[in-house]
Structure to design on (444 residues):
């Protein structure tokens, strides 16, 4: 029986990945990383709500505490001395919300857990349009990482799956609607935890995606 | 000015890497991972002693707490329900002291810190003879990981350096002697923290290396 793990941050991209994984695999576990980001409590709530929605058993959910990332620093998401900036428009400049090599840390942990539980697929909601400036959101990065998994695991049979990597936000919204994912339970805002700010990079891209898809975003904005 | 980071566990292989890095780079930082292994306090003492020996500034030392690895489990080094076995002779079987994909987690964290501090070289004392059964100690694994770094970091200019990867333990001992590294301050035993047990895989390989090099291992054994 094929087992899959979904890296579920609680955002809309990872939610659509969860929808895909549940459509494609017999057994699906959800993995959440708390890396001490400003909205971590809110994101955790989305994780719980989505896992409840899909009736994922407690034993198939895992939260990994990555607050040790604060010890490394260098990002506005984890460093309290750096403010999260408002959306500045699309650019290829790496934003200051970048945690160096963060996706590799997350993927390594997820692959480790996948090996322990015997999962062979690992879904991640990385999206290129979202973050053209992040080097660890490029397709070539995931190809290279899959090679590391092949070389560095016992069986070499775990594969990273990136269903939304090259999709436009608009198409992710449409895909989610097709899969009937509960967008109302997701959280994307980097800045606020009560109502979404509507101003940060993540809110701006989400709002544009829903607008372009012609669908109303079901969450509340300030 | 070229900056290097050394992953210094406190064992003899990483100590020899530190000796190499100090001979080759102008500025060297030491990084230590505490992943909740049974001998973590003793290994930390070795890290401190070696950093003191080389007069590494406090600001150039970093300890990362990886005790969250216990949440993943699946290894006798971190799982208290699995005993560390005595040395069973050389084999290609992956030992139960294997933490799935551990080196990738460690390398990812180290690369993240390297990017923050601007280091371009990352020394790791992985040794193939030590652990032929560990998939993440194969040269092809490090080649693949260097590719991930090239793809997944801002500047793509951090390189993993594995000076002892294909060396016999005997030759590592001889190299260490040539570099005048303080072997007496290192710790290799997986099992004990007062005197080395002399029985576990790590002790057995260390003792054989010193014996074959014709040099007396300066640490105490039970």
């Amino acid at each position: 029986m094929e087992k899959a793990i979904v890296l579920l941050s609680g955002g809309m991209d990872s939610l659509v990945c969860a929808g895909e994984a549940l459509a494609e695999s017999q057994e699906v576990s959800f993995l959440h990383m708390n890396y001490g980001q400003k909205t971590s409590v809110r994101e955790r709530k989305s994780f719980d709500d989505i896992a409840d929605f899909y009736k994922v058993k407690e034993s198939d959910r895992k939260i990994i505490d990555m607050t040790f990332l604060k010890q490394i620093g260098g990002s506005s998401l984890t460093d309290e001395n750096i403010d999260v900036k408002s959306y500045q428009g699309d650019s290829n400049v790496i934003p200051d919300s970048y945690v160096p090599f963060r996706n590799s840390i997350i993927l390594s942990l997820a692959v480790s857990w996948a090996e322990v539980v015997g999962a062979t697929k690992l879904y991640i909601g990385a999206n290129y349009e979202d973050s053209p400036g992040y080097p660890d959101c490029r397709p070539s990065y995931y190809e290279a990482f899959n090679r590391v998994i092949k070389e560095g695991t016992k069986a070499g049979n775990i594969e990273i799956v990136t269903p939304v990597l090259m999709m436009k936000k608009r198409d992710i919204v449409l895909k989610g609607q097709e899969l009937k994912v509960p967008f109302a339970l997701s959280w994307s805002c980097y800045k606020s935890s009560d109502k979404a700010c509507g101003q940060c990079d993540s809110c701006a891209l989400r709002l544009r995606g829903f607008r372009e898809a012609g669908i109303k975003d079901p969450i509340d904005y300030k």
The longest strand of chain B covers residues 27-34. Chain B touches chain A at residues 62, 64-66, 68-69, 71-74, 94, 98-105, 107-109, 111-113, 115-116, 135-136, 138, 140-141, 143-145, 147-154, 156 (CB under 8 Å).
